[in-house]
Structures are given as structure tokens and as C-alpha cells.
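Regression check, pyridoxal-5'-phosphate case 332:
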Amino acid sequence: MAGEFGTQFLPQMAISYYEGGWSQEKMVPSDSLTLHPGAHVLHYASTCFEGLKAFRQADGGVAIFRMDKNIARFAQSTRLMCLPELDIAQTERMIVDSVAHYKDSVPDAPASLYIRPTHIGTEPAIGKAAARSDTAIQYILLSPVGDYFSGGEASLRLLLDDQGVRCGPDHGMVKGGGNYASALKHIERARASANADQVLFCPGGNVQETGAANFILVDGDEVITKSLDESFLHGVTRESLLELARDKGMKVSERELSIDELLERAARPHCEAGLTGTAAVVAAVGTLIHDGREYKVGDGKPGPVIRNMRDELNAIQWGNVPDTRQWLTRID
Ligand SMILES: *Cc1c(COP(=O)(O)O)cnc(C)c1O
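Current build output:
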């Protein structure tokens, strides 16, 4: 796959327009969108999106992973951003039909087709700083993406930040541009000051998540991760990995994890940590940086438990094992 993640797009996308109701969806060229410069989204950030993937199956078919979960989250973000309510059946049709349209362009695993449903408020009304956009557009961008680990499996460096916040505490469950924009300055500072790959936000001294992924700690047969609340994004990957861990008898602890406990556990030789999300499934964390000091997680290298969790989920996504949980939507 040429180019960086998310820079290649299939030439057409499904689109629907809201004006008191959603228009019949259609396929249009994906290289441009006509918006009034006064469009609500450009000024007041009325926008949210989703990220999910379609995978080439071992038997040659194509399947989308946990589409229902992602659409439900899209609808939830939509409500939290005061955008027009989605028609779930229509959004599902737009995703399925556009992937079906490009079935032959879904690359073989470990590459995949990344699907980016997007919802924006389009009303040309800069006076509506404190009111919702009465018009909107939703569209489904498709982007073939390569193997996340094609450059080898490096261990990430995370800066623990107990001062900055990723987003407003009651807005964590929105998958939307505003949250990414507000996290960015913290991430840039961490890159410049500590050569960190990501910031692990720890408001009040407790681990939350990074700018775009959830955090898990694996200590022996226990997986520790923050319990669900409205301060952070509830990852579909997080949930899926926890279910697999439970099913194979691991102990899953969803609870608060303080920086002190994290650093104490990380020093144990077999401890592992990871960032979970659709792009990578789970990427190993090797180093934690806090108050100017560096702490290795275990031996600082990618470990076998996290590697195994990823292999197990990939096996389901790629159709190498039976889909006993009905996580796949076949496109035939
Ligand atoms: C998308 C996202 C995640 C990961 O969610 P998945 O459903 O696992 O891809 C985690 N945190 C944030 C802030 C996100 O935007």
C-alpha cells in the first residue's frame, strides 16, 4: 500500500444530505465536497466520525468487523454533538453498499479497507454559535490501508500527563474532530520535549487514554483498564479484546489505575502494556515517561501476551477461525 495511513481514497463515496430528513443516498466522487465557507462545522465544529474496517477473508470473501457497534457509537456521537439523528438502517446500507461496490479493492490481510463514516453540520449560519445546524451531510469515505506493523513492531513511548486534558470531561465519548484538536497541543509538546509517540492522559493522576487509543495493562493473567465512564472513548477493540481475554480465563479488571500503581506494576519483569484501536488492534507500549524520568514496561520490548491477543483478534477478523460471536458482516 503506497503512502501513509489514510492518504489513499477509493474514487467514490456514499453520501446523504439532511434537510428536515435524510435524502436518498447516492455514490459521488470522493475527491471534493462543496461547502459554504460559513458552514456550521467549519466554525462551531459540529462533526463526528467513525473508524471501522473491512477485511479480505481466508475464503476470498469480504467482511466488515463489528459494524453494528460502530454505527451505534456514530449515533451516540451524533446526539452528543447535536447533529441531526441518523437513520441507522440507512447508514448501515451506505456502509454495506459502498464496500460491496469496491469489493474487489479490499486488499488481502494483513492490509484492509478502512471505512470512515463522517457527519458534519453544513448550515451556512455563523450566527448559530449557540444553536444546532439545521442541515447536515453524512458520507462514507473508503481508504485501503496497509499492515500497521509493516515497518516492524516497535514499542511505543508514552508521556504520562496529569496536567493536560484531552477534551472536556463530559465529551469523552464523542468521536469527533473537536476532541482531536484539543489534544493536539499536548501531543506536540510531548513529542518535542520527551520524544514521546503519544500522551497518556491521566487526569487527577489516574490513567484515562491517549489521543486516539485506549490503554491496557497486562500483568500476568490479569488485564487492567479503566472502567467505562463518559470521560473517554469506548473502543470497540478494547471491548473485543476484553471479551476474548475473559473467555480464555484471564482476569479482567475494569477500574481506576493510578500513575503510582502503573509505574509499580510496569517494573515487574513480565508486565506488558498496549494501546488498543482499529488501526493496529493493539500496539505494545515499551516506555512510560513521567516527571522527566523513563520507566520500562517489563523488558521494554513487545511481549507475548499482547502479541497473542492481537493474533487472536486478527484470526477472527481475517476469517481464519469461525466467527462464533457474530462479529463479522459478510459482503456477498
Ligand atoms: C477511535 C478511538 C479509540 C479506539 O476505538 P476503536 O473502536 O477501538 O477503534 C480510542 N480513543 C479515541 C479517542 C478514539 O477516537
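Comparison notes: Residues 316 and 325 are 9 Å apart (CA to CA). The chain is about 25% helix and 30% strand. No diff flagged against the previous build.
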